[in-house]
Amino acid sequence: MARVNTLPPLLDKLGRPVRDLRISVTDRCNFRCVYCMPKTVFGRDYPFMPRAGLLSFEEIACVARIFAARGVKKVRLTGGEPLLRHGVDKLIGMLALIPDLEITLTTNGSLLPQKSALLRAAGLKRVTVSLDALDDAVFKRMNDVDFPVAKVLDGIAVAAAAGLGPIKVNMVVKRGANDHEILALARHFRGSGHILRFIEYMDVGSSNGWKLDEVVSSAEVVRRIDAAFPLEPIDANYPGEVAQRWRYKDGAGEIGVISSVTRAFCDTCTRIRLSTEGKLYTCLFAQSGHDLRELIRAGKSDAELDAAIAAIWQARDDRYSQLRMAATPHLQKIEMSYIGG
Ligand code: SAM
Ligand code: SF4
Ligand code: SF4
Fold first, then answer.
1. Would you call 172 helix, strand, or coil by DSSP?
2. How many angstroms separate the CA atoms of 232 and 248, rounded?
3. Which of 68, 193, 237, 250 has its Cβ near the most Cβ atoms within 10 Å?
């Protein structure tokens, strides 16, 4: 396939460059996390996307190459559960051929025991694992499919041994559901070399029945951990880093907090999302996407696709989280499992 030469970086209407591409490789998942794919909505007859509707690996790699030429430095594979996509290691292998592009993946960890070595061999650098509780009963209530926490912990260990670390472990905190597990997780991962990060529960999609009083703010998370294990703030790794970093004063490592609700980071948001069926979303909360699949399957050249992508990014003025606190959103939004978190 023809390569697009390196082109001037793209800036959106607020002067933000495009740096991170999140690719959803499947809208399916083997979990039904209560805050993401509640069973009441994602039941047995939920109409997941037919196979022919998914972007093929060649089509995904084509889009990634074009973005890389426009300054994207990092690709994150997500979903749904990305490890459910058959042959995802082959896709990783194809993406790994693109120069200067870091490839990462976010997973619920359920398939890491059997897939870590294959993923590493294909060129994956790191994984982020979602883990919402250490207590087995609480974890099972969160994933709602009776999946045992021990298997995810095993997945983390196997991934680390395969060279996919340091592993970031993400906990979405929902008040009354798993917030009493904050300290247990902090204690468990202190000194492990893995970086535990706490994510504020967000109003993504229209199916999770989000209420502001179920959000546990990052400030509260830090206060609770600090009371048991004293913390101090540390500098961001790079400008625009989404997580705020804190380290244990006793040297047992660091944690991160992602304050999507209480401290919007739209000003520095450099992310774009490619959905499973090839729509580009310029914001996690965008109400509609831009159909690239149609252009690709109509046989458009790389240069034509690049022009379409450039026009989409240059027209971007999203800052949903910044506006969230001002207006209560009752709008129909895109489901997280579809757009990829
Ligand atoms: N299945 C994979 C996983 O769970 O890691 C990848 C997809 S999942 C949609 C990506 C991330 O989004 C996960 O860390 C998940 O916890 C997070 N997430 C899903 N719904 C969320 C919500 N309502 N608020 C905050 N984070 C959410
Ligand atoms: Fe599945 Fe991830 Fe959503 Fe949980 S958060 S339901 S694992 S896509
Ligand atoms: Fe980026 Fe949209 Fe999230 Fe703001 S709300 S940080 S623009 S994805």
1. strand
2. 7
3. 68
Mutation test residue for ligand 3: of 285, 334, 339, the one with most atoms within 8 Å of CB = 285
6 contacts: CB under 8 Å, gap ≥ 6 = 69
Quick count: other Cβ atoms within 10 Å of Cβ 285? 21
322: enclosing H helix or E strand:
helix 320-324
Rounded Cα–Cα distance for residues 314 and 296 (Å): 20
Tokens representing 106?
Answer: 């976010």
Ligand with an atom nearest the CA of residue 205:
1
Please report which ligand is nearest the Cα atom of 14.
3
Domains identified in the chain and CATH numbers = 20-167+268-339 (3.20.20.70)
pLDDT digits (tens, 9 = 90+) for 241-285: 889 999 999 999 999 999 988 888 899 999 999 999 999 999 998
Q: pLDDT tens digits, residue range 46-98?
A: 999 999 999 999 999 999 999 999 999 999 999 999 999 999 999 999 999 99
- DSSP-derived 3-state class of residue 117: helix
* Interatomic CA distance for residues 117 and 113, integer angstroms: 9
The pairing of strands 126-130 and 271-274 is unpaired
Q: Which residues of 211-248 are buried (b: 16+ CB within 10 A; e: fewer)?
A: eeebbbbbebbbebbeeebebeeeeeeeeeebbbbbeb
For 298, the token pair is: 């109509």
Residue 164 CA: distances (Å) to CA of 92, 107, 245, 261, 295: 13, 12, 21, 29, 35
Q: Is 179 in the pocket of ligand 3 (CB under 6 A)?
A: no
